[in-house]
Amino acid sequence: MFEKVSQLISEKKCQIGIVGLGYVGLPNLVSLATNGYHVIGFDILEEKIQALNAGRSYISDISDEQLQDLITKEVVSFTSDYQELRAADIIFIDVPTPIDSHQIPDISYVEKAASMVISQVRAGQVLVLESTVFPSTTEKYLVNKLTEQGWAIGKDIFVAYSPERINPGDGNLNVVPKVVGGVTANCSKLVSEVLSNQTHIVSSPIVAELSKLHENTFRFVNIALANELTQICDKLEVDPFEVIDASDSKPFGFMKFTPAVGIGGHCIPVDPYYTSWYMKGYGMTTEMIEAASRVNESMIDYTVKRVLKLLVSQKQSLTSGKIAIVGATYKKNVPDYRMSPVPKLIKALASYNFSCEVYDDLLTEMTSESGEVIPVKKVNYPDLNAADMTLLLVDHDYLDYRQLVTHSQLLIDTKNSCRDINDSRKITL
């Protein structure tokens, strides 16, 4: 069976299925189809399937033209009928893995997707979980379920975990190495053959699962260190970015991280909690993650206090006021506001009777966790004059930073984007 599947892959005669057509699944589908495979995309949301079949993309990294070209070439198809997955030789599972309000992992999407895939499984299929999960998830929801049905993993069915490494704003997936943890050596080999780009094969799915959590926790912890440095520098009246740049002049033993009012996106602010929650089952407290979490969560309160302190220094009233927030996406140049700190910041400022206007050319509105719709305006620099202070949260390339400073009564630059502009109204975080 291994040789047969391997030959299908090498001759590009295998059909690939993608379960979940979101920020990971759709770019994965386009990448595989562009590399010569026929790919069928599955999602439970009918509106997504209708849009994709019409050649309309809802993800910024994938253009309508890319989709339409692949549809015209008849190398992709889209469906909400999970029974069609039976035709796929290789299936990638790319469904969401969020946390709830108590920072407890929600693995229900993986459980449901795995159940659907297994209900249609046939001999010779390769099943690959890519969603970020806690250790043992691949074993629990794929391996054990298949084994219970009598399938021999590595002989009848091939199973691996290969964590996604999507970088929003960078559409070139083919140059990003992929970790592959197969249940057996043959499982890893087949997945590596499909991916074709550089792969790093590890001994088991659990190693691959933990590697994904570790690489994102690494960023989470180091951002916390930069955030703590910022608060130290505030006490000592030192520019934190100057300190960081000075440290970065060392050519070894230092990696540059910068502070953030909030960590957004669906990876860095989520994944560490998968590790900490899972390890509680082993009676272990992940001290570093817990400490980093406290520091990162303190940045909203720190930013609000910084705003109040600076307004007092300018002899402005604190009974009410207006704040202009420039930049609302979680990442520069990407129209995605998942877990952006902006809604929490607005709520915190409102407790001091400050109203906020949000500006970002990449959005028209955003929704808070409570469901409140927050309007987002395009940046019109003269409008900033009406605010008591401007908060620059995202350093989009389209912004004119000199205009930003010129039209602000007072500017807190949280990204050090205005470092080359000499103006007393500009203050770093």
TrEMBL record:
InterPro entries: 6-PGluconate_DH-like_C_sf, NAD(P)-bd_dom_sf, UDP-Glc/GDP-Man, UDP-Glc/GDP-Man_DH_C, UDP-Glc/GDP-Man_DH_C_sf, UDP-Glc/GDP-Man_DH_dimer, UDP-Glc/GDP-Man_DH_N, UDP_ManNAc/GlcNAc_DH
Entry keyword set: NAD, Oxidoreductase
Gene Ontology biological process: polysaccharide biosynthetic process
Gene3D superfamilies listed in its UniProt record: NAD(P)-binding Rossmann-like Domain
SMART domains: UDPG_MGDP_dh_C
Matching Pfam families: UDPG_MGDP_dh, UDPG_MGDP_dh_C, UDPG_MGDP_dh_N
Residues in UDP-glucose/GDP-mannose dehydrogenase C-terminal domain copies: 324-420
GO molecular function, one term: oxidoreductase activity, acting on the CH-OH group of donors, NAD or NADP as acceptor
NCBIfam families for this protein: NDP-sugDHase (TIGR03026)
Family classification: Belongs to the UDP-glucose/GDP-mannose dehydrogenase family.
Stated name of the protein: UDP-glucose/GDP-mannose dehydrogenase C-terminal domain-containing protein
UniProt organism field: Vagococcus salmoninarum
